[in-house]
Every structure is written in C-alpha cells, then in structure tokens.
Amino acid sequence: MKDFKKILVMYQLKEVYRTCHVLDRRESSAEHSWSSMILADYFLGKMKLKLDRERVMDILLYHDLVEVEAGDTYVHDKKALKTKEKREKEGLEKLKEKMPKVLLKKYVALYGEYKECKTAEARFANAIDKLDPIVHSLEKAHSWAEWDLSEEDVREVKEKHLVFSQEFMNILDDLIQYLKRKNLIR
Question: At a CB cut-off of 8 Å and minimum separation 6, what does 150 contact?
C-alpha cells in the first residue's frame, strides 16, 4: 500500500493546470503529456525517423512530472520563466523523495535526458512538447485571443526547440500560416 500512495504523488500531475483550454477549464499537465504522446506517435509514423519509439514515449510520459512540485510555467510568462529552472530543480529533489523507488532511477534518467536534449529521442520529444500546445489550440480562438500573440512571439519561444530539424521547422511554418489565416495570431 505504501507504493500506491507514492504513485498517487505522481497522479497529482492531473491537478497541475496549464494555460490551454479544455472545454470550460484549463488543460492539466497530465492531459498535455497524453496528447504529446499521441502527436509523437503520429509524427514517428509520418516522418519515418530511426528513433527508439519506446524511449520517446517514456520521455514524454515523464517530461512534465516535475510540475507536481514546481507547477507549470507558461512559455510567454517572462517573470515566471526567470524562476523556472530553480523551481524545477527544487521540485525534482522533492519529487525524488516521494516517488516509488522502482520508478525513481528511470525517471531521473529520462528527466535528465529530456532537459539536456543531447539524444535524438530527447530532441524529438522536446519538439513535440513545444508543438502540442499549438496543435491543441488550433480551433480554440478564445485561447489565442486571451494570449494576444504575434507570429514573432510564437517563433521566439518555439523555433529554438525545432531548428535541429527542417521537417519540424516546416511544420511550425505551416501551423503559423494557418493561425494567421484564421486571424488567431498577429
């Protein structure tokens, strides 16, 4: 029973809310992790990349778990971004004390791989993480109106995570053109 209670700590990711909308509420970080995995599955099939699919899925499954302790940071919130790294480092230490030991080593390795972005799987997962909010909100005009973003705002926070791949840069360009045609960004 003790491990089940520790697993419940990880379930708290369902209670961490992001800025994207789902119906009349905010999306949870757990929902974002799931939709990122769906998006990754799509692009892994479409792009025909030679990546370790299981590794990509594991990275995406755990990539935002630290938010249980650190909270989510909206990518356009410049004030919160200044403390993000510190909050996540402290959050990781707290989370490590609370997690089931059987998952701890795996989680720490995956989280480190994701943050360092040195492997092809981590770069791919990071790109998916950055594209998912755009894809999620493609038909949610109220979200874009609330955020009042320009093309430059979007490019500033997304391109640096996608520039390793011309294919991902083309996808971003296509998404931005769609958002502009729909008058969702300036």
Answer: 185, 186
Q: What is the pTM for the complete model shown?
A: 0.94
Q: Is position 151 within any domain?
A: yes
Q: Residue 35's domain is classified under what CATH number?
A: 1.10.3210.10
Domain count, the chain: 1
- Residue 12 CB-density burial (10 A; 0-12 exposed, 13-18 middle, 19+ buried): middle
Residue type, 1: M
The reply to whether 186 falls in a domain is no
Domain that holds residue 74: 2-181
Residue 4 pLDDT more than 90? no
Paired tokens of 39:
């998006």
Which residue in 8, 15, 136 sits closest to 64, CA to CA? 15
In a domain, 128, yes or no: yes
CA distance 8 to 99: 9
Q: Scanning the structure block, which residue is given the tokens 């938010």?
A: 67
The yes-or-no verdict on residue 16 having pLDDT over 90 is yes
Residue 58 to residue 118: CA distance in whole angstroms: 16
Domain-embedded: residue 13: yes
